[in-house]
Design goal:
Layout lengths: L4 H16 L6 H7 L4 H7 L3 H24 L5 H22 L3 H7 L1 H29 L7 H20 L4 H6 L1 H10 L7
Length: about 190
């Protein structure tokens, strides 16, 4: 397998951003660490921000591929949806942790992260819709508008990301998977008195 120069530059930059931080990494650092000249680096990227964008884009593609595999599992839709919820949160957290110094940038530069994630968001809503449609078709889920339901679940998951990455939800989430899943997908009922 031939590794493309651009992929090498992105991987080296990811590693440098993770260890030194975004602010403390220069284009020279990336060029030197990749054993490529500055001219080569500037052939692919106009600025350090462009490199950072490419790093986030590569990481979101990794998440996307992993979630695609979840949607293709040979499981009942309800189990697939539960697995999707927890795999997704775990994958996002691992990306942030794997990138060490990028954790601060992840929290500080949400606008850039959101711009990069638009493709992932679109794919995710489609994956969720596919799972919901499978459940609707086999009668295991009662869902009216699968597009709207997918958007709501996706939005809820995105809202859980920061507390999960920070560790606020991670322990209780893993210990209470069924309860959290039930609440996320079924809401709560008010008991009649």
């Amino acid at each position: 397998m031939v590794i493309k120069t651009k992929d090498v530059l992105i991987d080296v930059a990811r590693s440098l951003f993770a260890t030194k931080g975004f602010a403390n990494t220069s284009m020279n650092d990336i060029a030197n660490a990749s054993n490529k000249g500055r001219r080569t680096l500037y052939t692919y990227f106009k600025s350090k921000e462009d490199v950072f964008y490419a790093v986030i884009q590569m990481e979101t593609m990794t998440i996307r591929e992993r979630l695609k595999l979840v949607t293709m599992e040979k499981k009942p839709p309800i189990d697939k949806l539960m697995n999707y919820v927890f795999v997704r949160l775990k994958e996002v957290r691992e990306v942030v942790i794997r990138n060490g110094g990028l954790e601060a940038e992840f929290f500080q530069n949400q606008n850039l992260v959101e711009r990069v994630r638009h493709r992932l968001d679109f794919a995710e809503r489609n994956y969720l819709k596919q799972i919901l449609e499978e459940g609707k078709a086999d009668g295991s889920m009662v869902v009216g508008d699968t597009t709207l339901a997918a958007l709501i679940i996706h939005s809820a998951l995105k809202g859980m990301e920061l507390p999960y990455v920070r560790g606020e939800l991670a322990i209780s989430l893993n210990a209470n998977k069924k309860e959290i899943y039930d609440f996320l997908c079924n809401g709560f009922s008010i008991r009649k008195q």
